[in-house]
Amino acid sequence: MRKAKGYTQEELAIKLNVVRQTVSKWEKGLSVPDAHILSKIADILDTKVSILLGSTISDEIDENAVAEQLAKISEQLAIKNRRNRKIWKTIGIILLIMVLFTILLVIFNMPVSKSISTENSTSFIEKNN
């Protein structure tokens, strides 16, 4: 629809105050625009939000149906974002634990290795005398 109206991704992105890559993600279905941006897109492209969403909602159905559909999409996106944040948080915690464990190993092994090397040098010196 954007191409039919003569807009490039860059031009549409500028009008929406987003980057071109965001428009590309929307078109590829990798993400969805927020409800207020979807409304702006409809205004810019001179169409209805329902058409942008791929529905053939008739004029008889009021905007509540569109609002419900937008709410569902926003909820799905929020769930996906929460899941992604939870995954990254878990990965971060695991990495932090690994780093702390490594630091503790280094701290507690250093005195042991020093005492072993000291004992070996002392015993070597005693044997030679």
From TrEMBL:
<keyword id="KW-0812">Transmembrane</keyword>
<dbReference type="InterPro" id="IPR010982">
    <property type="entry name" value="Lambda_DNA-bd_dom_sf"/>
</dbReference>
<keyword id="KW-0238">DNA-binding</keyword>
<dbReference type="GO" id="GO:0003677">
    <property type="term" value="F:DNA binding"/>
</dbReference>
<keyword id="KW-1133">Transmembrane helix</keyword>
<feature type="transmembrane region" description="Helical">
    <location>
        <begin position="87"/>
        <end position="108"/>
    </location>
</feature>
<keyword id="KW-0472">Membrane</keyword>
<protein>
    <submittedName>
        <fullName>DNA-binding helix-turn-helix protein</fullName>
    </submittedName>
</protein>
<feature type="domain" description="HTH cro/C1-type">
    <location>
        <begin position="1"/>
        <end position="52"/>
    </location>
</feature>
<dbReference type="Pfam" id="PF01381">
    <property type="entry name" value="HTH_3"/>
</dbReference>
<dbReference type="InterPro" id="IPR001387">
    <property type="entry name" value="Cro/C1-type_HTH"/>
</dbReference>
